[in-house]
Design brief:
With 48 residues, the chain is mainly alpha-helical. The protein contains four helices and no strands. 0% of the residues are buried.
């Protein structure tokens, strides 16, 4: 979660704006950011 907050600050968010956000909203952003991307084939999924 620390990396998410640092990324938001680097993108121009004020720390007070981030701290005022509901925790549920921040967790949803974190889940979306860490969601694995879908690959079309097994070869692409394993880096081939």
């Amino acid at each position: 979660m620390d990396k998410l907050i640092v990324d938001m600050m680097e993108n121009g968010k004020d720390i007070n704006e981030i701290l005022d956000m509901p925790i549920h909203y921040v967790v949803e952003i974190l889940k979306d950011k860490n969601k694995p991307k879908k690959e079309k084939s097994l070869i692409a999924a394993f880096g081939g």
